[in-house]
Amino acid sequence: MEVCNSMSDTQNQVQISRVVKRFGETIALDDVSLTISPGEVHAIVGENGSGKSTLAKTMSGVLRPDSGLVTTFGESPRDPMHARALGVATIFQEILVAETLSVADNIFAGADSLWKRARSRAEANQKSRSILKQFSGLDIDPNTPVQQLPLSVKQWIVIARALLSNPRLLIFDESSAALDLDATTRLHAEIGKAREVGCCVVIVTHRIAELVRIADRATVLRDGRVVDELVGKNITKSNLLRSMSGKNVAIDAKVAAESMLGRELGSVVLSARALRVDRDAPPFDFDLHAGEIVGVAGLDGQGQTDFIRAAAGLISSHSGSISVAKPQGLGFAPIDAKTSGVAYVSGDRAHEGIFPNLSIFENFALPLYRSTFGEYGWIKRRQIQRAFDGEVKRLSIKTGRTSNLITSLSGGNQQKVLIGRAFAAGPKIIVLDDPARGVDFATKRELYTQLKEFVHEGGAVIYLSSEIEDFFDFADRVLVFRQRIPFRTIPAIRFSEHAFLAAMFGESEEAEMSFERVGAA
Amino acid sequence: MIMFNYLKDTPTIQKISINRSVLFGIGLLIFLSIAGTLLVPQFGSYANIRSMLLLAAFLGLASLGQTLCALLGGLDMSIPYVIGSSNILLAALLNWGVPWLPACLIVLIGGLAVGILNGVLSFRIQGQSLIMTMGVGLAVVGACQILISTGSVYGGTVLGTVPQWLRDVSSIAGTTFGLPIPPIVIIWIVVAAIVVTAMAKTSFGRSFYAVGGNRLAASRILISEYRMWLIAYAISGGMSALTGMALLGFSGGGFVGVGDPYLFTTIAAVVIGGTSLMGGWGGYGSTIVGTLVLTFLTTLLVGLGLSYAMQQAVFGLLIIPIVAFYARDRSIGDQI
After folding, report:
1. What's the ipTM?
2. All domains of chain A, ordered by start, with CATH?
3. What would the pLDDT profile of B130-146 be if each residue is shown by its tens digit?
4. Which of A59, A231, A348, A494 has the highest local Cβ count within 10 Å?
């Protein structure tokens, strides 16, 4: 379709035409087409899971599209090595350095051939020193092992490595995350230089403010599809937020609020004080009440996962305390996964949920064996059978023969077994880590109904979700994490997709308000 | 309607895994028996069956720990060394005049201690159980030889008399309560019955499968992976010590190399039975079948008059297709 471009254009451009990429059932990229011209800074934006990183990976040869074509300067990258030969340099979200090697070795990693150095050691050292001074403003001995340097310098090393390869296509995949504002400005200057020499620059970022400043063109992805392309002056915060959230902008905050009527909050059942999710994170407090469903959201890696794992007693927080109400109001005790009555359900079934070698029944019953019969006890299946039958009926799990392997079930039904397992332990608090991942809509609805029932009976729920729409008509309030603290707490009455997005992307509440006005106008 | 099928399920925890590999193993046993009966005179005689059961009992006891370790995804390479060490240590202790009960207890506790050390190291230094346990085993067997070299040692052999009761336990002519079956065979049958039942019917037994199947999921439901590793390796060390002591009664003299064949055969028995070395699948019932297959095969090869070198070659060549079959079976099973 787009093949009508002249030969010389194809030689100088990066073209993505009708690319489709699936991961199992999930469609990560759905018929995506775009063109990146030389001397253009092209931003790719979207929510978590909208497919932006997948798109970047098809350009760098890490992933090959299921159908469609990626053409970088006339050729399709077969693999990362081939992409590099074509002039593609990628700076990934993960900071890929060899910790034990020196700064110079890291900057010039891959530059030498097997038998021959591309440059003398002295030259490499001298060049490393000058380029790091230029980028980071620090004078760093190029012989220092990288592990002794702070994260931001490591980030610069990776950026220097990419820029020194004289790339024709430079891809930044969330790679300014470790840089502060000042450093980001210097990075933009470098990007500007690359643009001037005719390099194609692709930026995948969560930082909207940043791309508003430097992008010439922005492609907005939602659910793997290109939903908007903004050029030049049209790249504004409000336009971007509107495009990313799409048609659901006016999702009914009213309906959501009404559903909360008649639900009364009970006493505090879980309380966190001066909690830090890691060493450098600021401390914060948090209270969970009986009868409450608290949503947890945030862009990837903002500390929300550590928070809920700490709340489930699975990991210890870096500092501060989490305590759980004792029965009959006898004060609080430090959380302990064994005794606190906190159940944890993960959406990462394969990794931390199911036992693929065991039957459907045993996947349900394993934790109950020990709580019912003791560590070395004799199992009387009949005693557990009733609880199992009850949960199967309540959650309408379609099981087939329950002696079949758990893997014979669909993902949704596997998840129901795991949720039933959590319910059967008789918890007071249920912590769920994105449990609806890869689960169909009907199952999701059933799960919400069950959880609402659970809180009506005096339970409390902490629910992390990567999908914003999960919270509507379900959560009482949502903690939006950013930079490893709850950046903003949004009450049910103020739920709207752009309110979540604005908080995730760190926009001020005023920006959010002004956007609301723009949206209303 | 399919939904309510669970009501009809029999109340067993897990069907004692009569899976494809066990069926194949039993088929192999039948084939070996028929081939043996046709090709080797006396193969089906009571004397021969008794001697095969005796050899199978030694291998079966030694493979118990290997099975548990494999279920968790580990390996115990110290088994042959612990067998050899306990064999010469018991011989030396008895020669030094230590009464039989304390002597046996010392050896057994030593075996357990070595097992616990293996467990600690294999768990702490993840993924290195192969070389860790081998290192521990070598150190132990070396230390034992140094310790008892004050006695009479000729190339790892401890000379001296083995008490009659020990000979009775594990010699081919031994009897149990008047029955013409060596007591060690009865011991193996009892141990096997207890282990197979415990693995299927207790919280403890099921925890092995949980840790082997998905260690992170197991830790999420608060099963201590570390404890399971310690117990598996401790049992392995204890059973190896027991086997080493029983072998002293069988051979009538201490010899440090008596455990050497068990390096290969314990792993082979586990794998032929159908227990995955990656953890989670299989069990001791499967290993029993594997043990019998290996013993029948060895007896058949000896009966055919093959030289030792020839036996080894045939043995090796036969193992490859058998294991290849299981490996394929497993990967197909995983995809369902």
Report:
1. 0.83
2. 2-249 (3.40.50.300), 252-341+427-495 (3.40.50.300), 355-426 (no CATH)
3. 899 999 999 999 898 88
4. A59
